[in-house]
Design brief:
- This protein is of the alpha/beta class.
- Helices cover about 30% and strands about 25% of the residues.
- The protein has helices at about 40-55, 70-80, 100-110, 130-140, 195-200, 215-220, 220-225, 245-265, and strands spanning about 1-5, 10, 35-40, 60-65, 85-90, 115-120, 145-155, 160-165, 170-175, 180, 205-210.
- The strands form 2 sheets. It has a 9-stranded mixed β-sheet. The protein has a two-stranded antiparallel ribbon with strand order 2-3.
- The chain is globular, with a radius of gyration of 24 Å.
């Protein structure tokens, strides 16, 4: 079984001082002093990948990140042990472009051997768009399961996922390959490597991938898209005062208003 886990390293916002949330020059905030951690949802994806590897020793698991320079965090993944940790270059200005992020991740995946499972967190800061997993699945022509909170393997290339939706928790049985967007998993904190594991991984290196095409070549149909205008949707509210001088009359008046409204919507 071949597993890919996509992860992002972000600032630990719990360390940001209250006064620093105010924007500075050009609307920017300086939170560079905050520690760097794996995005919470991606941390669940990393731990889930390790649990799958624990259950099926023959599984090969790769961690992929964009422009993550925090060597200590990435080296810890090699110690856990991930079979491979790769880092993609992030083009300037793409931090808030889910389409560019998805295009670069997709280009890497298409250049690699087939993956049975691709795991991602459902969203990541600072944009928190929640679009990258869906865009990747569309570009790769793969089924996408969202809000996944549990996963187990039933048999060869057959899996069962638990997904949390508006109607509750759904149990979904599917066949790989597939892309899963991880939601709020319970007890899915990334394990900490032991000193022995860290020493064993000292000589292993994080791979930097810089041979991918430029963004405008990966998605030429979207590369020239330019934001022209933003417009706030007009919303109006209407207040109707009930004129009845008693509760029964007000109730009849309200009933008549509701019936008239329903009649208009049906026509």
């Amino acid at each position: 079984m071949n597993i890919l886990v996509c992860c992002k390293i972000v600032n630990d916002l719990d360390q940001v001082l209250p006064g620093d949330w105010q924007s500075g020059p050009e609307g920017r905030m300086d939170i560079s002093y905050a520690g760097r951690i794996f995005n919470y949802f991606d941390e669940s994806a990393l731990e889930l990948g390790l649990r799958l590897k624990d259950g099926y020793g023959s599984a090969v698991i790769t961690a992929l990140t964009l422009a993550g320079r925090e060597e200590s965090l990435l080296k810890n993944l090699l110690a856990l042990p991930f079979d491979r940790v790769a880092r993609l270059a992030l083009e300037h200005g793409s931090e808030f472009s889910p389409l560019q992020t998805a295009a670069r991740l997709t280009a890497f995946i298409k250049a690699e051997p087939d993956y049975d499972l691709i795991l991602m967190g459902r969203q990541a800061g600072p944009a928190d768009s929640g679009q990258v997993p869906l865009l990747c699945a569309e570009m790769l022509n793969l089924p996408c399961l969202t809000q996944v909170i549990g996963l187990r393997r039933l048999e060869e290339n057959i899996f069962q996922a638990r997904s949390r939706g508006d109607g509750g928790i759904k149990i979904i049985t599917f066949k790989g390959p597939a892309l899963l967007a991880l939601g709020n998993m319970e007890n899915a904190f990334l394990r900490i490597p032991t000193l022995k594991q860290k020493l064993a991984a000292q000589q292993r290196e994080v791979e930097t991938v810089s041979s991918l095409p430029a963004w405008d070549q990966l998605a030429p149909e979207c590369a020239n898209s330019v934001l022209q205008k933003l417009r706030k949707k007009e919303r109006s509210r209407k207040l109707i005062m009930l004129k009845g001088d008693s509760l029964p009359r007000q109730a009849r008046e309200l009933y008549a208003l509701i019936c008239n409204q329903l009649a208009r919507t049906r026509t």
